[in-house]
Amino acid sequence: MMGIVYSTDSSFKFEEEEQVAITLEPHLQALKVRLDKKHRAGKAVTLIDGFKGNVSDAEDLGKKLKSFCGTGGSVKDGEILVQGDNRDKVLVWLLKNGYKLAKKIG
User: Fold this and answer.
1) Domains of the chain by range and CATH?
2) Are 31 and 94 within 8 A, CB to CB?
3) pTM value?
4) Which of 31, 42, 45, 96 is the most exposed place for a label (fewest CB within 10 A)?
């Protein structure tokens, strides 16, 4: 939003620009899979970073990964979090589903 509250110009037309993020195909995604323990009370979380696309597609991918790993997680700030050290499972699922550029860090 632009933040316009009121205009005295009679010819003014407010136009909202909606920016829709386009989700890249799986083989074009450059995802990074890593283990993170910082700021999580010592609990391990598998972090998938680098997803390019809209939030609903990221949430859908997160849901599929959590289901495959049999654990919980969330999608926050463009990162997909899967509880526990599930790097190997996540990497296998990503490769099996066409994410060719997935990298395992750590």
Assistant:
1) 26-105 (3.30.780.10)
2) yes
3) 0.75
4) 42
